[in-house]
Design goal:
Elements: E1 5-11, E2 14-20, E3 25-26, H1 37-40, E4 52-53, H2 54-75, H3 82-100, H4 107-140, E5 147-151, H5 159-168, E6 171-174, H6 178-181, H7 191-202, E7 206-209, E8 213-214, H8 231-249, E9 255-260, H9 272-289, E10 294-299, H10 316-325, E11 332-338, E12 341-342, H11 351-362, E13 368-373, E14 389-390, E15 394-395, H12 401-417, E16 421-426, H13 452-463
Parallel strand pairs: 5-6, 5-16, 6-7, 7-9, 8-9, 9-10, 10-11, 11-13, 13-16
Antiparallel strand pairs: 1-2, 2-15, 3-4, 12-14
Helix pairs in contact: 2-3, 2-4, 3-4, 5-13, 8-9, 11-12, 12-13
Amino acid sequence: MPWPTQLHFTSGQLSVSRIVDESGYLVVPWPVAECGLMMCTSATLIERARPYNLLVELARGKVNQVRCQAFDWRAGGLVLAPELEQRIRDIGLAFAHAAAGVPPEKASQHAQIVLDLAYQTARQLVSTYITQVFQNRHQRQPRLDSTLACRLGQAVPPAELATLLATAFNSVCLPLSWGQVESEEATYRWQECDALVDWAAKQQLDISSGPLIDFSSAQLPAWLWHWERDLAGMASFMCKFVETAVRRYRNRIRRWQLTAASNCAHVLSLSEDDLLSLTYRLAESARHVDPSLELVVGIAQPWGEYLALSECIHSPFLFADTLIRAGLNLSALDIELVMGVTPRGSYCRDLLEISRLLDLYALLGVPLRVTLGYPSSAQADADADPDLRVEGGRWGDGFTVEMQAAWAADVTALVLCKPYVQGVQWVHFRDAEPHQFPHCGIADSRDQIKPVLQKLYELRQAHLK
């Protein structure tokens, strides 16, 4: 089979690249996971003599997804407008024409049209779902208890920004990052953390903390690499830090996100089993200090993009399921939805894909918390993790402050309407201080507030306490 090349296609509000052969076709038995097809379509590929047309198969999957989701939601009580019902029927007919009613050389062109229509219809369907779910929930509770939080940096925000933050968010997440607190082995620096906790308490904001241990090279202390391949030693250091942090603030902070990205880490020569064991031990260490704490474990790349690049046994869903089945008594799972950032983030996906993903993780029987982020620029970010770059599809017109605000408004509304979601947190507040994900802050590198804050403020005013 010819060496795969990249085919770029745009549908609705999404623009992504997928791997195809030189002729523009996906030829079985090329691994479906490596083509990214398992991430965006439910189509089943069966080996045959004539090659599959990639765009036709993507259209098949999206149309099937929209129709099936509409049926499920309708069965659950969702009322669809006649115009939307007709659009769902129309995309089925349009796909039939693209798949069987046109010459093969024109199939891609017609399939692209179907994809556009399917994504537009999916957006209308999800918008209807969000509106009606919020209406039903507000009949029982005028203001929802869900938290809308922002993860802060190491320093207390400037006074003018702090006031704006407190109006848009009802909660804050304090990082207490291991790499910052214990940048030198056995030497803890708590001064900045103490100041942050004091400030948040004075603002009368709900306080959570974490992730204490983020399994990325830029977030771990540099000295830890001297202990690479010494699992017992690394586990001892991690557990000691968690115990120390929790013991110091347990009377002021009750909700702790212990880890982030332990499901997809490629650091310190740690295997999947090592990462599972470490995650479990960290939770046990926190429980040893105070059994009543609310403990959260983070799942990064929840669609599992990393599975196409490395030989892994556990999907992100299976990783979380294994922890829960092992008896890890979690208060919630944190699902990290940072889109358009690679290699740590997720490829851009539409609202229907996000809704289906959250519904999948809800099957684990543990409440969800969701971390959101989307870049406002594609330029280099000197204060971000140097291993991360803005790439991996786009939303609407790309990476601008307007598109960041539009993405945040749509995705946050979808996430907050889900009854099993405890809360949402934005990935970080200021681009003007060291941070992880490039250009994802609420305030830019000059501390100018971006339009995303207004969108989040409007959502809080409409739905939350």
